[in-house]
Design goal:
Elements (H helix, E strand, L loop, with lengths): L3 E3 L37 E5 L6 E6 L5 E3 L3 E2 L2 E6 L10 E3 L6 E2 L6 H8 L3 E3 L6 E2 L12 E3 L6 E2 L12 E3 L6 E2 L12 E2 L7 E2 L11 E4 L5 E2 L12 E4 L5 E2 L11 E4 L5 E2 L12 E4 L5 E2 L12 E3 L6 E2 L12 E3 L6 E2 L12 E3 L6 E2 L12 E2 L7 E2 L12 H10 L6
Parallel strand pairs: 1-9, 3-6, 4-7, 6-8, 9-11, 10-12, 11-13, 12-14, 13-15, 14-16, 17-19, 18-20, 20-22, 21-23, 22-24, 23-25, 24-26, 26-28, 27-29, 28-30, 29-31, 30-32
Antiparallel strand pairs: 2-3, 5-6
């Protein structure tokens, strides 16, 4: 026996049971019948709705637990309802189809869902926005289906729904708010629509997603938006994405990372601590690889760096235990401190022909290093940049010492 929550029109903030005959605990939802009549207009506090041109309900003066909102007040359509309109005693609200937006967070909605044992949520056609914190902190809800009319999911809308497993998202959805699904630790199935233009910071942090496709419509991947997803193994980033922000995919289990040519910047720690990754391919559009971007890519055996990368930040590839060679394109000007340190299996390093600066400890502990190219462009070589490279030929060690006597110690 499953319990469902059905929202009707723009929103019916009520509890309902589908397929559960003779269950006295199921709440009844009426829309076009006379189960209960609309409350008189003078029972509502309201203001002008400057966004949608009708009336916005901001308060309720009655004492009913089940009520119906009228279609009009003072001859004008009711188009929105504020999140403070109804107190916690209101258990069921039927709103007219004139309502475009309903800020659900003001009702003690989570408690109602928990009490009724709701496991599946269906939001009907006509709803355009799910407001901030609408369905937060629910422990029973398992599945959410969104309508084709939905445009935006608010901040923390489904945060900490610890039993939520599946969300069916619609084409037409454009915005997913900050922390929208953060902490939904069992959420494993989400298909992001091609219409998305923004996914907020930490939107899917600490979920259980295994496969993610980032649509090209999403130009910027926000900070920590997919951070801490230990189950995440497969990632496809479509052409069109331009910026991957701080910690976007950190602490996941990605095995292959391919950055499309449309991306220009990989932010700080964007893919840090993906210890299972074996192949990284960075597109030709990337100009900067941020600090700690690929930190602790311990299983990495293949690295391809695009032909226009200019800056590789500090600790960007720190702890690459199995990589045997690094070939930098001629575009690289600056390699930061500790950028490739602890590359204990490195045998060959080709620095390209354009590098100017190598930071302190940049290639430290490359114990097996047998060859490194030293271009004429190199001017600034940091202390201990090649410290521990005991296998380098004496002639190359002498060449390095000419640039910085402390580079090898």
């Amino acid at each position: 026996m499953k319990k469902y929550l059905i929202l009707l029109f723009a929103l019916v903030c009520a509890l309902a049971m589908v397929g559960c005959d003779n269950d006295e605990s199921a709440a009844y939802v009426g829309v076009e019948n006379d189960y209960f009549r609309a409350e008189p207009e003078d029972m509502f506090v309201f203001t002008n709705d400057s966004i949608y041109g009708g009336v916005r309900i901001t308060g309720y003066l009655g004492d009913k637990t089940h009520l119906r909102v009228p279609y009009t007040i003072n001859g004008r359509p009711v188009t929105s309802i504020s999140n403070t309109a109804f107190g916690v005693l209101v258990r069921q609200v039927v709103v007219p189809e004139t309502v475009i937006r309903f800020d659900w967070g003001g009702m003690d909605f989570g408690a109602q869902v928990e009490e009724a044992g709701i496991s599946e949520l269906f939001i009907p056609e006509g709803v355009t926005h799910i407001e901030d914190r609408s369905f937060r902190n629910l422990s029973i809800l398992e599945k959410v289906s969104l309508p084709s009319t939905l445009i935006a999911i608010g901040d923390q809308a489904f945060i900490n729904n610890t039993n939520l497993r599946t969300v069916s998202m619609n084409e037409g959805l454009r915005y997913i708010g900050m922390n929208a699904f953060d902490g939904c630790s069992l959420l494993s199935e989400v298909m992001l629509p091609s219409t998305l233009v923004r996914v907020g910071p930490s939107a899917f942090r600490n979920t259980a997603l295994t496969d993610v496709t980032i649509p090209g419509s999403l130009e910027s991947i926000s900070t920590s938006s997919f951070h801490g997803i230990a189950a995440l193994r497969n990632l496809y980033i479509e052409y069109g994405v331009r910026l991957i922000n701080t910690n976007a995919f950190a602490d996941a289990s990605l095995e292959v990372i391919i950055i499309p040519d449309s991306v220009h910047t990989i932010g700080r720690g964007a893919f840090a601590r993906n210890s299972n990754v074996t192949h990284i391919q960075i597109g030709d559009g990337v100009r900067e690889i941020g600090n700690f971007a690929f930190l602790d890519s311990r299983a990495l055996v293949s690295l391809s760096i695009g032909n226009n990368v200019e800056i590789i930040g500090s600790h960007a590839f720190y702890n690459i235990n199995f990589l045997t060679s690094i070939i930098l394109p001629n575009s690289v000007r600056d390699v930061g401190a500790w950028a490739f340190a602890n590359g204990v299996s490195l045998i060959l390093i080709d620095l390209g022909d354009g590098i100017d600066t190598i930071g302190n400890h940049a290639f430290e502990k490359a114990h097996m290093l047998e060859y490194v190219s030293i271009p004429y462009s190199l001017v600034n070589l940091g202390n201990f940049a090649f410290s521990g490279s005991r296998s380098l030929p004496a002639c190359q060690q002498a060449e390095i010492r000419k640039l910085n006597i402390n580079a090898l110690f």
